[in-house]
Amino acid sequence: MVRMLALVVAVLGPVLWGRGLALQGGMLYPRESPSRERKELGGLWSFRADFSDNRRRGFEQQWYQRPLRELGPTLDMPVPSSFNDVTQDGKLRGFIGWVWYEREAVLPQRWTQDLGTRVVLRIGSAHYYAIVWVNGVHIAEHEGGHLPFEVDISKLVQGGPLGSCRITIAVNNTLTPNTLPPGTILYKTDSSKYPNGYFVQNTRFDFFNYAGLHRPVLLYTTPTTYIDDITVITGTEQECGVVNYQISVQGSQHFELETRLLDAEGQVVAHGEGAQGQLRVPNAHLWWPYLMHSYPAYLYSLEVRLTAQTTAGPVPDFYTLPVGIRTVAVTDHQFLINGKPFYFHGVNKHEDADVRGKGFDWPLLMKDFNLLHWLGANSFRTSHYPYAEEVMQLCDRYGIVIIDESPGVGIMLPENFSNMSLAHHLEVMEELVRRDKNHPAVVMWSVANEPASSLKPANYYFKTLIAHTKALDPTRPVTYVTNSNFDVDLGAQYVDVICVNSYYSWYHDFGHLEVIPMQLATQFENWHRTFQKPIIQSEYGADSIAGFHQDPPLMFSEEYHRSLLEQYHLVFDQKRQEYVVGELIWNFADFMTDQAPLRVMGNKKGIFTRQRQPKAAAFVLRERYWKIANESGHSLPYFR
Ligand code: GCB
């Protein structure tokens, strides 16, 4: 046991040390403004995976002290991207441990000479644990692969002779029982079967553990006294829109703040002064979801102007935040947006594609949003982790409603419910709410997917987690997603909306489509009888291999896929008259998983292939979603 722990520590290194870092400051998305510049560090970085037995050669040889290429061979690695599928090396594809990224950034002279400028390095996502050095100086560590972190590097780049800086980032994809998602390193010690030191990583979630620098890495500037965070909470009073705002400033106590709210035409509709206040907008345009209104996704702009009083005179900082005025509420059988019943007809997604894995990619993102519009989808769940900030911004702009999920997936073993796990989960919820709180598209938080909620410690775990999330954000409902295989789950007493996944006629009663209506109706009735809460069918679906045809339908054919969905729809159409408030297909597109006998080069439950081509099921859903949208009388032909 002790030996095992020692080995695990050897592989993970600092993954086990970095607990309890308190959340500091805001996490405003870095936008350009008259007082702020940004410099993208995308492109090719130098890269090396540390294949040494203990995975610690990089630390022993201090790979951060000198350019990586001087200490051995390097690869060119694109950022953002997962590293796994970029090369022809199978060992790198399945690599577990530390990989090292490095690049030189050339800085504009003003950034390095002007001591009134603050230079910040921001990493959109590094999966899973990251350590960052600038010019060999250790400056940051971050745990968690799906949320951004940043660090002020002004002192390191200013005042010296250098106009450039060397950024080194070591990233470790090892998952432990206390990471989110959790995983286990299993050492195979039978020397007749495995070489010395052989280990594998086991996880209880169904997607490939892609790793690397997944989202943009960039530098941006602010003045030294700067707008650090903005929180808006919106509401309505009769015809009047209300925007409550709170602004935090760092760097000085001597400043003034002005706010102006501009409509989509750029007209000022309200203004205020000071760090907090309320802006009132008569006859406000509300933010409505796509297909729920003839002018969906209306965004105002909140312009914040900070004027700091310095010895050299006043120094301004500007930040503009898009604001959608809308309300969210839940009754015992409805999900209300702006007081009107909202029905989720949407998808579950993954950040996943050929070659780039989980790497952020604009063409892919736009293709996905065009497909959502084509489909008539009004919503998605960020299964099973927070998505890139640019995704959330597009949802605001297009009116796509989001259930924003934490990386709490695969929480199945008793050790995943430890106090250490809970503490980390609470911290992740704080990071998530801090990042996404101002997005009108986000209408609910999901703290986890299919945790083993019948285990004894689960009750305390979820009670605490949900209460904490509600305290962080009292304006949005909170859920965790459960599975119909689990008995009616008492943890659901803490959630506002029941989200349930089921795979009738797929993982059980396979081949028997005829039992779906009965089993699905029973599921809904049991959950609603027990909790009197609205229910979302948060996953359902079947695998199909594009191009496989069989009629009468057999499993894995496109015909079985579509017939299975049609059986579900019969029941949704009855129950949505009562308390079912949504249906989210599993999954938007085929995606990569670990290799397993139940997976054919990944999970094939996509209604689109991994290359985003429609299968038969996509046409079934398209017809259905547009039919549902047309019931409201607000469908928008220009998106079709
Ligand atoms: C589920 C999980 C999802 C899986 C899906 C499946 O319940 O939430 O992550 O991919 O089932 O296809 O098995």
From TrEMBL:
Listed EC numbers: 3.2.1.31
Molecular function terms, GO-annotated: beta-glucuronidase activity; carbohydrate binding; signaling receptor binding
InterPro entries: Beta-gal/glucu_dom_sf, Galactose-bd-like_sf, GH, Glyco_hydro_2, Glyco_hydro_2_AS, Glyco_hydro_2_cat, Glyco_hydro_2_CS, Glyco_hydro_2_N
The Glycoside hydrolase family 2 immunoglobulin-like beta-sandwich domain, residue ranges: 225-326
Tagged with keyword Aminoacyl-tRNA synthetase: no
Signal peptide from the UniProt entry: 1-22
Species in which this protein is naturally found: Chrysochloris asiatica
Oligomer and partners: Homotetramer.
Enzyme class, broadest EC rank: hydrolase
Pfam families the record matches: Glyco_hydro_2, Glyco_hydro_2_C, Glyco_hydro_2_N
Glycoside hydrolase family 2 catalytic domain span: 328-629
Keyword list, A-Z: Glycoprotein, Glycosidase, Hydrolase, Lysosome, Signal
Taxonomic superkingdom: Eukaryota
PROSITE patterns tied to this protein: GLYCOSYL_HYDROL_F2_1, GLYCOSYL_HYDROL_F2_2
Known role: Plays an important role in the degradation of dermatan and keratan sulfates.
Subcellular location: Lysosome
Designated name of the protein: Beta-glucuronidase
Phylogenetic placement of the source organism: Eukaryota, Metazoa, Chordata, Craniata, Vertebrata
Activity regulation text: Inhibited by L-aspartic acid.
TM helices/strands, residue ranges: none
